[in-house]
């Protein structure tokens, strides 16, 4: 919106509990940070899509997902990560 475009630098951090998946409209967002596991690939794609949308003056977008370190062997972790990808 025009109001959002004029105030794009007014907010440094927006906390959206659940909103970032669907219906969140802030194309100026440059970094999405999530905590924990996601239920589906679609959910991840929707969240990543929120910050990777083009916007005037935006040159960088980043997605970070913080996860607990698994209590598993390296081979089990590698297999699980590859299965997700």
From TrEMBL:
It comes from the Bacteria. InterPro entries: P-loop_NTPase. This is Helicase. It comes from Streptococcus agalactiae.
């Amino acid at each position: 919106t025009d109001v959002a475009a004029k105030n794009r630098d007014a907010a440094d951090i927006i906390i959206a509990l659940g909103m970032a998946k669907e219906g969140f409209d802030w194309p100026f967002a440059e970094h999405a940070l999530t905590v924990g596991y996601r239920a589906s690939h679609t959910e991840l794609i929707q969240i990543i899509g929120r910050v990777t949308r083009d916007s005037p003056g935006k040159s960088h977008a980043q997605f970070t997902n913080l996860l607990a370190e698994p209590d598993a062997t390296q081979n089990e972790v590698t297999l699980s990560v590859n299965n997700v990808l």
